[in-house]
Design goal:
The protein is an alpha+beta fold. 25% of the residues lie in helices and 29% in strands. It has one domain: Holliday junction resolvase RusA (60s Ribosomal Protein L30, Chain: A), CATH 3.30.1330.70. A hairpin with a 2-residue loop joins strand 3 and strand 4.
């Protein structure tokens, strides 16, 4: 089973502003997998990973009430540089766009689904999404920032 540790992102700004919430999820970014069907049943192959993220979130933020109203999602997926590249070529990739699988849309959908009902009431509340997928020389991670949008 994969282990996740959630960390505050920009701790000072988060504690002073109730309209912004951010954190990092260390580890390789995870794309959403489609529901599986068989034997007259449907199941979520990522149920265990999502449940672990939800438990960690509620452990670190026990008093968080799921946000309602229009929200903005900013997410950056930091991907590992392939180990097959030479150090010189690997360094040239840092902070450059990652244009290979997994698809950006599937990565975003996993973040939306994993925190649905915990961080936000429903993922339909996202009125604005800004996302990027880049190479990193540091450890891979997913940085998430959610902002309340004025009505």
């Amino acid at each position: 089973m994969t282990s996740f540790d959630m960390e505050h992102r920009d701790k000072e700004n988060l504690s002073s502003n109730d309209n912004v919430f951010g954190f990092s999820i260390p580890g390789d970014p995870i794309p959403l997998q489609r529901a599986r069907h068989g034997n007259k049943m449907t199941w979520d192959p990522q149920k265990q990973i999502k449940e672990e993220l939800r438990q960690r979130f509620t452990h670190y933020y026990p008093n968080h009430v799921p946000w309602e109203g229009p929200l903005g999602l900013e997410v950056t997926f930091y991907m590992k540089v392939p180990i097959s590249l030479s150090p010189k070529n690997a360094q040239a990739k840092y902070n450059k766009p990652h244009i290979f699988k997994p698809d950006l849309s599937n990565l975003i959908k996993f973040v939306e689904d994993a925190f649905n009902g915990i961080l936000h009431k429903d993922d339909s509340l996202f009125a604005k999404i800004t996302a990027s997928k880049v190479y990193t020389h540091l450890k891979p991670r997913t940085d998430v920032v959610i902002r309340k949008i004025e009505k």
